[in-house]
Amino acid sequence: MSTDINDRAAVEDRLWKEIEKHGHAVMLGAHTHPMQHFQPMTAFCEQEVGQIWFFTRTDTDLARSIQEGKSAMMVVQNGEKFHACVGGELTLQHDPARVEKYWNPAVAAWYPEGKADPKLTMLCLDANDAQVWISEGGPIRFAWEVAKANLTGSTPGVGGTRRIGLN
Prior knowledge:
The protein has 167 residues and is an alpha+beta fold. The protein has a single domain (8-165), classed as Electron Transport, Fmn-binding Protein, Chain A (Pnp Oxidase, Chain A, Roll). The protein is 28% helix and 36% strand. The protein has 5 helices and 8 strands, in the order H-E-E-E-E-H-E-E-H-H-E-H-E. The longest helix is centred in the N-terminal third of the chain and has 15 residues, at 8-22.
């Protein structure tokens, strides 16, 4: 999938597609005091409203540490081809409709009492911006660009980056 880094709409579309495709292994962290370490989460996208939802338990460090409107970041990667850091406001929301919508066997494994588990809740990231890095040349192009840069004193041309506003 080739994406022109200068095409803002294409970069945003690629971002949401990558989150959908690789959302089972994103890293999420809130800007708390003290700073929380990022933790692995599964993301459920609602691109049309710029939201990313996560299942969590009310007794996790992340859930206990956030308050309404807490600034947060989510990182998604696809090997060496795609990297993004998405920023926004993270809120704790128990939303039965979304629990129903996104419930699946992998989620169920974490909640022994099922959808009625009293510790089950959700986090919502209202995404407002992202920094995206795209490199689509593959390992041979990467090696070529590094060798060329070392010979010419330039930097490797392995892709591009773009900051985009969301919502």
